[in-house]
Amino acid sequence: MTAIPLHFELPEKLTVEKFLKKLNQNLDFEIASQQYTIKTFYDTFDWRLYGAERICELNQSKSASSVSLINSNSGLCLAVEACQNPPKFSGQCAEGRLKTQLTELIEMRALLPLAQLPHQVYRLNILNKDRKTILRIKLDEYETLENHLSLQPLKGYAMAVIKVSAILQKSLKIKSISPCAVLNKALKQQGRKANDYSSKLAIKLTPDMRADKASIIIYQQLLQAIQRNENNTLADIDSEFLHDFRVAIRRTRAGLSQIKHTLPAHAVTQYADFFAWLGHITGPTRDLDVYLLSYKQYQASLPESLQQELTPLYAFLKHKQVNAQKELADKLSSPKCRKKLSEWEVFLNQPLAKKGAGSNAKLTIKALADQRIWKVYQRILNEGNAISEASPAEALHDLRKTCKKLRYLMEFFQSLYPAAEFKAVLKALKGFQSVLGDFQDYEIQEINLKKFSEEMMEQNVATSTFLAMGVLVQHLDTMRSAARHDFAEQFERFKQAKNQHTFKRLFAHKA
């Protein structure tokens, strides 16, 4: 059954006054209210709401102000909360449907304003012969966009919706639109479009492209990610800006070390050192962000009687994070950092030498990608096979680093390979990586919590807090042991014959 159109856009020359006159010729109605309203759309920097087919809007008038969460397909309001300003984070909402749904959708990300639209809102009641309201219409008269209207059905009057929708389309020649059309047009006015940022790589390369040109394209896209996250990392808007900033840095470092001999050796060495420095200075703040994000999980892992005793740990971590963030902002704003990033951008925009500056520069990128991916994959198998129950933790940490290099290489070059097979082995790699990541994360958190305990002893923290932290350390140690035990099973799953055959078919034939 085809859905009945509920949302419409008035023709550009059809004013509200003219529309109401035309509507009056077809239907009996009354204007219930008219208000000047400012609508502001919100989403996270990486479009989590839009991607989940949700629209978040703040509507402010003299008489009311509220935040609504709307289904962008149906236009149905899923949650609404009266407030003067939208919450920056979902946790700041009052308990209720809005908080529950936002928390699930945006997690730790901040809501940021996208576009603001001043407009007049007319609310019309469609009446039957008995002067009963059988349908409501919301009419939006925008200052900078075409006017829009939406039908708001009332229970028990389904036929009224069908009738009015048909009149609008057939008699008044008004076209139906998507509920997210207003947002999309408001973004377009600003030179933007939805989903104009994603932390996921989508690098388009062609198999016969020269390797030096392809590597430049990769680094340029990574630099754009660094630049787009830099200011909000400095401002500490939310923790994911620094996360994405660091991922772009790590990917750049992996490219410089693994996409070999495509660029001048002196430049590779120079910028590899710089990006290593960037990775180093951003590490402490990110680690503290992770601890703060994990705090509720830490609490939940404890017996209920000890959960509140952990509160001083949160305050301690937050204080350290604030100081680390200030120190990081100073370093990222330093002349050294700004100069190097600027020089890197200039270098990437220089014309390529015809002969190529590296021994692999004139290779096709497909040939180089095959070679590098296959070699690093073989290294993973060798390192993994050498690990036994007696192997030290460092062996697993080294294997994790090798897996990261392979993952970044595969993400760089995914456009060169058949999508279905490629995604299958990339998914297998990510699954194996996750157990290695868990093992290292639990170990580092365990070590650092012990250090934090020593620091907190100088602050006259209650003994009960140290007891809670001791139980938490034991929990992390248990989780670390479980991840270590799970390694062998996950490695066997990763290196199963099916995956090995796919890796060989995709990458080994030209190695």
Protein model, in words:
- By secondary structure, this protein is an alpha+beta fold.
- About 55% of the residues lie in helices and about 15% in strands.
- It has 17 helices and nine strands.
- Strands 5-4-3-2-6-7-8-1-9 form a nine-stranded antiparallel beta sheet.
- Strand 7 and strand 8 (about 150-155) form a beta hairpin.
- The two termini are about 55 Å apart.
- The mean pLDDT is about 95.
Query: Low-confidence spans: pLDDT under 50, at least 5 residues?
Result: none
Q: Biggest sheet, strands in spatial order?
A: 5-4-3-2-6-7-8-1-9
Beta-strand portion reads 5-15%
The biggest sheet, with number of strands, parallel, antiparallel or mixed sense and barrel status, is: 9 strands, antiparallel
How many β-strand runs?
9
Output mean pLDDT: 94
How large is the radius of gyration?
29 Å
Labels describing this entry:
2 domains, 511 residues, Hypothetical Protein Pfu-838710-001, alpha+beta, CHAD domain
List the SSEs and their pairings.
Blueprint: E1 7-9, H1 16-24, E2 29-43, H2 48-51, E3 54-60, E4 65-71, E5 77-82, H3 97-106, E6 112-127, E7 133-142, E8 148-153, H4 158-171, E9 175-176, H5 181-189, H6 211-235, H7 239-258, H8 265-293, H9 295-300, H10 304-307, H11 311-332, H12 335-348, H13 365-385, H14 393-413, H15 419-456, H16 463-494, H17 497-508
Antiparallel strand pairs: 1-8, 1-9, 2-3, 2-6, 3-4, 4-5, 6-7, 7-8
